[in-house]
Write a structure and sequence with these properties.
Length: about 325
């Protein structure tokens, strides 16, 4: 296959609505180089007003909501590209290539397996990625060049035979029969509400991270990654905590694991460092909270410390 280091991105996400942006926040925060393409037909942009998305007790207008989620993916480290994806094609093969490093923060000299993808946009630009997440509710024509007829089903409508993307093509975690291809939308019974779509995007984003970690050599029981922050006050004895994390890691390595001990140590220490990064100080929490309010206020058009929003009554 093409050397993974030669790919433009680790993950390319087709669709910049709640589904795709949610997936991008997870992959971007993990450290995977991620691009999100946003120029398709968005079902949410056909809504008049969003009133059932958790965290907005008065609802939120669609333009503001889109500004917020796009701001979020960029803050998470993703590239946001306003272009329509026209085709996704396979590149490379299933051979194993040595990778000089790991954008996910794991140890170097890991092995990456599987093909990659070439993503071509309406403007004629092409980028390559190790993984692709389809997150566009309407259609899936851009996946046709992959050549899997199982992706599509036919149906009769008004005397005509039509073809549509099979919403059950992917499994519940978004994985498909094509290595490195995930589908977060369209899927059955999920993309009918924005908040459900965002949840599915997060789930599929975590699937991509898990598979990335599996390729880097993490045993299956250790491949899943959890993204949360904890107060540093809970980390009373850091040295003891690190020893506990190492012991927990070792206890979850299967007896039949054939990785060299040196590689296991590298993965163990990378895992310990990630666990340490989950703990943040009160000062860090306060600073991030202040910045969070400022970013939100920018989109609402008010000062971060303004009481105008709460004092204003209904018109």
């Amino acid at each position: 296959m093409a050397d993974a280091a030669a790919f433009d991105y680790d993950v390319a996400i087709v669709g910049g609505g709640p589904t795709g942006c949610s997936a991008g926040v997870f992959t971007g925060r993990y450290g995977l180089d991620t691009v999100v393409f946003d120029r398709g037909r968005s079902s949410l942009q056909r809504c008049a007003y969003l009133e059932n998305y958790l965290g907005f007790p008065g609802g939120v207008d669609i333009e503001t909501f889109y500004g917020l989620i796009h701001d979020h993916v960029e803050a998470a480290g993703c590239d946001l590209v306003s272009d329509l994806v026209e085709a996704v094609e396979l590149v490379g093969d299933d051979e194993t290539a040595d990778v000089a490093g790991d954008s996910g923060g794991d140890a170097a000299d890991a092995a990456a397996t599987g093909p990659g993808f070439a993503v071509t946009t309406q403007s004629g630009e092409t980028v390559t990625a190790r993984r692709v997440v389809a997150a566009a509710r309407y259609g899936g024509d851009f996946l046709e060049p992959l050549g899997d007829d199982e992706m599509f089903v036919t149906y009769e409508y008004d005397g005509e035979t039509r073809t549509t993307f099979d919403r059950d093509y992917a499994d519940v975690e978004g994985r498909t029969p094509i290595d490195g291809l995930y589908v977060a939308a369209p899927v059955s019974e999920v993309n009918v509400q924005a908040i459900m779509s965002a949840g599915q995007g997060a789930r599929v984003g975590r699937s991509a991270i898990t598979d990335h970690r599996l390729e880097r050599g993490y045993p299956e029981d250790l491949a899943r990654h959890w993204d949360w922050l904890r107060p540093e006050a809970e980390l009373a004895d850091e040295a003891a905590a690190r020893d506990d994390w190492r012991e927990r890691f070792d206890s979850r390595v299967p007896d039949d694991c054939d990785l060299p001990e040196e590689r296991l140590r590298e993965l163990r220490e990378a895992d310990v460092e990630r666990q340490r990064e989950m703990y943040v100080s009160d000062e860090t929490v306060e600073n991030r909270a202040e910045k969070g309010r400022e970013r939100l206020a920018e989109h609402l058009g008010v000062a971060a410390d303004s009481d105008s929003a709460s004092d204003a009554g209904p018109e």
